[in-house]
Amino acid sequence: MTQSHSPTNPDIVVIGGGNAALCAAMTAAEAGASVLVLEAAPKAYRGGNSRHTRNFRCMHQGPLGPLVESYSEEEYLADLMKVTGGKTDEQLARLAIRTSEECLPWMQAHGVRFQPSLSGTLSLARTNAFFLGGGKSLVNAYYRTAQQLGVQVLYEAAVTHVHLAGDQVEYIDYTHMGETHRITPKSVVVASGGFQADTDWLARAWGPAAKNFLIRGTPYNRGVVLADLLDQGIAQVGDPTQCHAVAIDGRAPKFDGGIVTRLDCVPFSIVVNQNAERFYDEGEDVWPKRYAIWGRLVAAQPDQVGHVIIDAKSLDLFMPSVFPPIKAASLRELAEKMGLPADGLERTVGEFNAACGDTSGFHPTELDGVSTTGLTPPKTNWARPITQPPFYGYTLRTGVTFTYLGLKVDERAQCSVGQGPVRNLWAAGETMAGSILGQGYLAGFGMTIGTVFGRIAGKEAAAYANAH
After folding, report:
1. Domain with 76 in it: what CATH number?
2. Cα separation of 89 and 92, whole Å?
3. What is the DSSP letter of 301?
4. Are residues 235 and 252 in the same domain?
5. Is 26 exposed, middle or buried (0-12, 13-18, 19+ CB in 10 A)?
6. Are residues 307 and 408 in the same domain?
7. Are residues 235 and 249 in the same domain?
8. Which of 262, 317, 324 is nearest to 292 (CA)?
């Protein structure tokens, strides 16, 4: 094992190369610390799941950047409480929400550019600021700014062990260019994501069904550092079966399909399982608040598959997927193309259509109360008969974005062991998001957590390093 010196005896090592890691690295560098980022991915795939993001959920008192009107702390918290079923640390949640307002101008000052909100079903112009060029542009902007601040980055640098001695990290081992290196930084920030790309670990948590899950993001988030720290007694948070899982196009690749494989058509559809039976209220709420439940719903169905059925009048109401829908002149033909029992699909659609009532109040971007009557499960909004050919279908599979089992942190983003804090260890981003997200997900909130806690971790790590 080689003892590395310049360039790799920095004050601070940041493990990971996505949004949270870069926010920590830039903040620490601005505080005068020398920083090394260890990114497991090759340069072309740098940025973790942040590459696939589109927006940042942001509290604001009045118009701010691309955001219109206002979005209060209490409304934001209420939205979060609804999707998590109250399973959140309210103190940390309020910290993330309150700090998000100052993050937006900070992001702009560090190279991020925003665009007006996308039109369509997202209805996020008030709550979510969209990145011009998406997450890849944000990541590239942050790497440029980090370089200007003197942050050093090693790509294909996989951390294998973070050695804990009592209440502090003593050294880090990592591999790079076929060699193993050991470094002894003053401070360490872990921002290396969840464990979702390790499908064996997913299967241990979920059971064999997890082998059928698709991983929406980077194949490099395998939870190596997370497992290493938990094995050494670092305080953990979250449930290994909880994750941000959405229903995505079943034709998506196993890894890295990203945002374009998401399907936004569920509110305007019926969703059936392999037996052509409906299993949940497709019209429960507007999509940014409820899209994240569908991954879990589909995971509970036979073969972990669902099928969206819509007709011609709904085709233009949602953002299109990267793959075209399956198209057929009749429901029977559609069922055959999708591998569904034709009699069953015709019966299910017939029962649904018969339960639909007055549709004159239909409004695609807000809760419209256009609902079914006497149907189980009901469809409580946007319930219009599926009658206008051609008919269209998509197959849904569970797409995991990130897992919620992670490192427990306090309001200073600091990790702990036993009864007290680890003096020189902080965590940010998806690897500690379970501290706030007990279950469920709110669109754009992962970037909020990463930005807020990345900046806090960078500030605290630098303060410790500068004092030692």
Report:
1. 3.50.50.60
2. 6
3. S
4. no
5. buried
6. no
7. no
8. 262
Question: What span, in angstroms and rounded, lies between the C-alpha atoms of 122 and 127?
Answer: 10
Element (H, E) at 236: strand 236-237
> What is the residue-wise DSSP string for 425-454?
EEE-GGGTGGGT-SS---TTHHHHHHHHHH
* Count of alpha carbons within 13 angstroms of residue 2, beta-carbon side: 13
> In sequence order, what DSSP letters do the residues of 250-280 get, joined into one string?
TTS-SB---GGGB---GGGSEEE-TTS-B-S
Q: Are residues 281 and 364 in the same domain?
A: yes
117: amino acid identity, one letter? S
Total of domains in the chain: 2
For the domain that residue 376 is a member of, what is the CATH number?
3.90.700.10
Cross-strand bridge partners of residue 305: 397
Could you tell me if 226 and 94 lie in one domain? yes
Question: Terminus-to-terminus CA distance in the chain, angstroms?
Answer: 26
Q: How far apart are CA 413 and CA 455, in angstroms?
A: 9
Q: Tell me the C-alpha distance between 19 and 166, whole Å.
A: 30
| CA gap 247, 401 in Å, rounded | 11
Q: What residues form DSSP beta bridges with 20?
A: none
- Phi, psi for residue 187 in degrees, rounded to 5: -135, 150
* Residues 188 and 280 reside in one and the same domain: no
pLDDT tens for the chain, 468 residues long, are 444 334 558 999 999 999 999 999 999 999 999 999 999 999 999 999 999 999 999 999 999 999 999 999 999 999 999 989 999 999 999 999 999 999 999 999 999 999 976 665 456 889 999 999 999 999 999 999 999 999 999 999 999 999 999 999 999 999 999 999 999 999 999 999 999 999 999 999 989 989 999 999 999 999 999 999 999 999 999 988 888 888 899 999 999 998 889 888 999 999 999 999 999 999 998 766 677 789 889 999 999 999 999 999 999 998 888 899 999 999 999 999 999 999 999 999 999 999 999 999 999 988 999 999 999 999 999 999 999 999 999 999 999 989 999 999 999 999 999 989 999 999 999 999 999 998 888 889 999 999 999 999 999 999 999 999
Are 78 and 153 part of one and the same domain?
Answer: yes
Residue showing tokens 């880090």: 172
Write the CB contacts of 207 (distance below 8 Å, at least 6 apart in sequence). none
Q: Which domain holds residue 63?
A: 2-240+404-467
Same domain? 131 vs 57: yes
